[in-house]
Amino acid sequence: MSLKRPIAVVVVALVVAAAAVAQQQTDFSKIEIKTTQVADGIYMMQGAGGNLGVCTGPDGVLLIDDQFAPLSDKIKAAIAKVSDKPIRFLFNTHYHGDHVGGNENFGKLGITIVAHDNVWSRMSVEQVNKLMNRTTPPYPKEALPVVTFNDRLTFHLNGDTIEVFHVAPAHTDGDAILRFTRANVVHMGDTFFNGRYPVIDVFAGGSIAGMIAADERVLALVNDQTKIIPGHGPLGDKKSLQAFHDMMVKVRDKVQPLVQAGKSDSAIVALKPTADLDAQWGTGGMPADRFVITVAQGMRGK
């Protein structure tokens, strides 16, 4: 009897459980918001969860993602240090809680929340997590995007044209990337984990093939001067995105033949296909063995 499905389920369940426990155990009172200026009027902010993007100027503030609800006041205070204008728009790069956890707080302020159609679809209905035997109710109305789009969206804000585009399922099925054309800045959400193995949500349509395709799409748009805000990790650029892309191509090329040969997850992990990459990429993100299994799951269609 093949063990590949039970092991995959157990491992992903452990990942989900670990994330939930980490959130519950985080002392948000000790989290400080670190602000890095990326370009004139554009900032990356880091606290706990996904990296934030902040666009400031005379037209008001565009906030990209909002981490966890207990950090909303700290995020607002950090924004107030770089702009005296109100937050007009909140854009969610995808639906995960470390990127939309503050939505309700910001939505209650009357801020317009914008996201891809699939983000609204996932947040607006009950979600059943079969791995954890847990049901999550719909997000409250105030937390939901009020503007959604299918493929492309454009903001004309603060003297810049901000091109937003949806990519085919990569990290999730609702990933969106924002490109500031004048400032030469890109916010990639979780389609880019700078310097670490990524989390790929295969149960929301994600796959390593989709991640690679999303990164190739961005690589074709940027140049050596482009600053790239990743979903996690330090501020990046074309070189660091290329390195992340090349790592994933290597992992795909090592794991795919093993999946095609019908090997179980335990057999694939035992072969250590990422052994020569782990020292560089295996800390700060998804543990190597779990990453390999999620890659294999995505190739099998879960």
3D structure, described in words:
With 302 residues, the protein is of the alpha/beta class. It has one domain (4-248): 4-Layer Sandwich (Metallo-beta-lactamase, Chain A), CATH 3.60.15.10. It has helices at residues 4-25, 72-80, 97-100, 103-107, 117-123, 208-219, 238-260, 265-270, 278-281, 288-300, and strands at residues 34-39, 42-46, 52-55, 61-64, 87-91, 112-116, 127-129, 134-136, 147-149, 152-157, 160-166, 176-180, 185-187, 227-229, 236-237. The strands form 3 sheets. The protein has a 7-stranded mixed beta sheet with strand order 1-2-3-4-5-6-9. A 6-stranded mixed beta sheet has the order 10-11-12-13-14-15. It has a two-stranded antiparallel ribbon with strand order 7-8. Strand 7 and strand 8 form a beta hairpin. Helix 7 (238-260) packs across helix 10. The chain starts with a helix and ends with a helix. 46% of the residues are buried.
Quick recap of the structure?
The protein is 35% helix and 21% strand. The chain is an alpha/beta fold and 302 residues long. It has a single domain (4-248), classed as Ribonuclease Z/Hydroxyacylglutathione hydrolase-like (Metallo-beta-lactamase, Chain A, 4-Layer Sandwich).
